[in-house]
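Blackboard transcription, Thursday session:
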Amino acid sequence: MNHIVEAIGNTPLVKLNNVTDGIKGTILAKVEYFNPGNSVKDRMALKMIEDAEKAGLLKPGGTIIEGTSGNTGMGLALAAIAKGYKCIFTMSDKQSKEKQDILRAVGAEVIVCPTNVAPDDPRSYYSVARKLNQEIPNSIYPNQYDNPSNSAAHYETTGPELWQQTEGKITHYAAGVGTGGTICGTAKYLKEQNPNIVTVGLDTYGSVFKKYKETGIFDENEIYPYKTEGIGEDILPKNVNFDLIDLFIKVSDKDAALMTRRLAKEEGLFVGWSCGSAVYGALEYAKEHLKEDDTMVIVLPDHGTRYLGKIYNDDWMREQGWL
Ligand code: PMP
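(Written on the board underneath:)
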């Protein structure tokens, strides 16, 4: 390998054995922390940069500016090192301190912005990223929410990997929804192979997706602060194609946190918080709907190290009243 970014993709698919009591069928986890940046977002970060280069938008010595909860930033930073670009990331202040430190460790500049302001507020991490992009010459703002390269990365890699790894046996596919790139890119590929595959999107309380899917209404009352990192939104990203997501299930911060800790202890999967959301919600669905011959794949987006100060810290868990 000439560079670590060549190690992106081809992550293992691992059977869940102990958190699946009372469920018929096979539950497999796509363990995305095996990517070099330790998350699923490496896939789309590299693709967004390569597509920007091909389109002539990113030139040597350029700067990549993005609003990111951390994982996209890590992927972009690795790709930037491989290709000689600078990175500036804006992040909301609810994200783990670890995520900021990790991004600084790989050479990025990080600007922390307030979480509880509207997306169009000039202080929001979306607005600050956009403004920097206007001010800094030879910079690009990939905008993972609306950039089609995001879904395309999963259409080209995650989808085919799952189809091959399950030898076409996959019947259900579940993933948390943030930008929507992971679930929709993968689902598009899988549904082209077998239109009967059911896709389950995991959402949070405090996010607009589920209600929008069920009613077509963008309901601002659905928006309130929550703690799970990386999934749920207060906007409708262009990468969320509601036609490709058959249903949404909302998972609470607490249920997600407790399931994440079970995954570490009972499956040996030391994964991030949204992995607990994905597994908790997907298993709720599986309990009712899965049959003996069904195979469900659940995406586990990132690694547990990024949450040592939160869900893997017993004092923090007690402060939340969750232990
Ligand atoms: N979990 C984590 C930890 C994430 O960082 C993200 C990315 N926002 C997701 C889940 C959701 O992935 P996507 O943006 O592809 O919908």
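Lecturer's comment: The first strand starts at residue 13 and ends at 15.
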